[in-house]
Write a structure and sequence with these properties.
The chain is α/β, with parallel strands linked by helices and 367 residues long. The protein is built from nine helices and 15 strands. It has three domains: 70 residues, no CATH class; 51 residues, no CATH class; 191 residues, von Willebrand factor, type A domain (Rossmann fold, 3-Layer(aba) Sandwich). The chain is 35% helix and 23% strand. The protein has an eight-stranded mixed sheet, with helices on both faces. The chain has a three-stranded antiparallel sheet with strand order 3-5-4. A two-stranded antiparallel ribbon has the order 1-2. The longest helix is centred in the middle third of the chain and has 18 residues.
């Protein structure tokens, strides 16, 4: 018996067929890396085509561009200019694909509520009944059940309805949440040979898509922070770029608290995506900066704000996109001061996190 004989594999035309879906998936990934620059993303895609033979004689890049335009993913800046930019449809597609990549495919919720296992004055009636208690609202009383009890207890001939006859319909609470998403765009997000801003944008877009599709009754505000902090729209997420900034985490948290203060929902939370290194404070019109290590003055101010959020019942969930031990140690201190949560993500696989939950006081790995 000769056994197995191995030879070098040479792909033929049948193994290298291009399709719109294949090229489109690559383009969506490239647009995240190029911060929404369609021309640069197409330049990269053409380079990949020359290197790996993505297109064929039957379907080329010209066909792909035509399909993108016909399906509403790109539009010309001016008629016949040849300069294209991505549309809102592309922006939503990028966010949806980021959500699927990180959190898996989730079905869109029609109700958009967070259910909790508590009963009381809520939106959703249950089949449970209980005796009337002082303080219950009239709207909670089940008239049919209460009249039946009155007939059983006092007879049909003489109608009498007492407090002991009343039954109350139990309701389930449904919570609505106001969320602020903070994104670090300081220069450290691209330092040391690591591209941290691209994973940060993917997490941000996934969270934004999760909240807006699965919990449409919730509110979502998004801000970025460098030397200062300012608010951005969801549609701006694919275009975010790192600037020549330090990391003013304090300014970001203060703006987040201000945004949440305007929201009427009882449940409020902050999601922060960062490499975990605050390096800047604003004192009047001047900036106090220190990029070397962790400045105790800056750290203490940041931890004080985390504790202040804790007193206001505003948990902060930190998405940490750096692996430096001393930065992770700061995030642990920050999370403990806030009694919040922390996700530690490596840059190669955003689907795997180490989840530290100081609320439940336990550790587990999410995959």
């Amino acid at each position: 018996m000769l056994g197995y004989r191995f030879t070098k594999f040479t792909p033929t035309a049948s193994h290298s067929t291009a399709s719109f879906d294949t090229l489109f998936a690559l383009l969506m990934q490239l647009l995240v890396y190029t911060s929404g620059d369609f021309a640069e993303a197409m330049s990269w895609l053409n380079h990949l085509d020359r290197q790996y033979g993505l297109t064929t004689d039957e379907y080329g890049m010209g066909d792909f561009l035509r399909d993108l335009k016909e399906r509403g993913y790109i539009d010309e800046a001016e008629p016949h200019s040849g300069i294209f930019h991505i549309t809102a449809k592309s922006e939503q597609t990028i966010r949806r694909r980021s959500l699927e990549e990180i959190f898996g495919k989730l079905k869109k919720s029609r109700t958009g509520n967070h259910h909790i296992p508590l009963s009381g004055i809520g939106d959703e009636p249950t089949t449970d009944r209980r005796e009337f208690q002082f303080g219950d609202l009239v709207e909670q009383i089940s008239i049919t059940d209460s009249l039946r009890n009155a007939q059983i207890h006092h007879g049909i001939s003489d109608f009498l309805l007492t407090e002991d006859d009343l039954e109350v319909i139990e309701h389930e609470y449904k919570t609505q949440t106001s969320t602020v998403l903070m994104i670090d765009i300081s220069h450290s997000m691209i330092l040391y040979g690591e591209d941290r801003i691209t994973p940060a944008k993917k997490v941000a877009m996934a969270l934004a898509e999760l909240i807006t599709t699965r919990y449409p009754k919730d509110t979502l505000d998004i801000l970025v922070f460098g030397n200062d902090a300012w608010q951005v729209e969801i549609k701006d997420l694919p275009y975010l770029q790192v600037g020549p900034y330090h990391t003013n985490t304090v300014a970001g948290i203060e703006l987040a608290m201000d945004l949440l203060r305007r929201r009427k929902n009882t449940n409020k939370q902050i999601f922060m995506i960062t490499d975990g290194k605050p390096t800047c404070l604003k004192e009047g019109a001047k900036y106090y900066k220190n990029s070397f290590g962790l400045d105790r003055k800056i750290v203490n101010k940041t931890l004080n704000l985390a504790a202040q959020c804790r007193r206001l019942n505003i948990p902060i969930t930190t998405f940490m996109v750096a692996r430096d031990p001393y930065l992770q140690q700061f995030v642990r201190e920050f999370t403990k001061a806030n009694n919040g949560r922390a996700f530690y993500s490596n840059l190669q696989g955003l689907g795997s996190y180490v989840f530290e939950d100081y609320v439940r006081n336990r550790r587990k790995t999410l995959r």
